[in-house]
């Protein structure tokens, strides 16, 4: 049997991803923190949620759910988002998704998300500002919003378009805390969101 170069590359990616997935399954619940598989490898976030991070998520969830139709939710927590074809396993801090798209066994299909929202961690900001701005368009997530309690700023990324290095967001709208911000079809206030202690 002849395997075309693209097929061979896909098989290598699949094997590599499955090996990382098996490793995560074997250490699940034995090590603290959150593990994700990115295009660069495994990312381990020591999850010691700090007040401003969790409080920001709470405010964002409540504000979004106040303006969205009832069939959509701002979900925090499990399960993960998995795109086996890209070799990526991620867990956004908050997922805007239709209730109907949550009724699946296992991981969520990232292409059903309306938006992913991340609150930047103090210890690993590049995971949100660099890694996820690369991975989320590859996974087909149409809107990605970042809130950064370190600087009281953020950005919303939209308009996935093809590039030589793969799909990327074409539009970035920066904001500062206190301004209104639009995530997908809904506009919410960023007033009084908490900041990390300096």
Your description of this structure?
InterPro entries: Nuclease_put_TT1808, Restrct_endonuc-II-like, Uma2. Residues 33-160 form the Putative restriction endonuclease domain. One of its GO terms (molecular function) is endonuclease activity. Keywords: Endonuclease, Hydrolase, Nuclease. This protein has helices at 5-27, 51-67, 99-102, 125-138; strands spanning 34-38, 41-45, 72-75, 81-83, 88-90, 94-98, 115-119, 144-148, 153-161, 168-176, 180-183, 186-189. With 198 residues, the protein is of the alpha+beta class. It has one domain: tt1808, chain A (Alpha-Beta Complex), CATH 3.90.1570.10. The strands form four sheets. The chain has a six-stranded mixed β-sheet. A two-stranded antiparallel ribbon has the order 1-2. It has a two-stranded antiparallel sheet with strand order 4-5. The longest helix is centred in the N-terminal third of the chain and has 23 residues, at 5-27. The chain is globular, with a radius of gyration of 17 Å.
How are the secondary structure elements laid out?
Elements: H1 5-27, E1 34-38, E2 41-45, H2 51-67, E3 72-75, E4 81-83, E5 88-90, E6 94-98, H3 99-102, E7 115-119, H4 125-138, E8 144-148, E9 153-161, E10 168-176, E11 180-183, E12 186-189
Parallel strand pairs: 7-8
Antiparallel strand pairs: 1-2, 3-6, 4-5, 6-7, 8-9, 9-10, 11-12
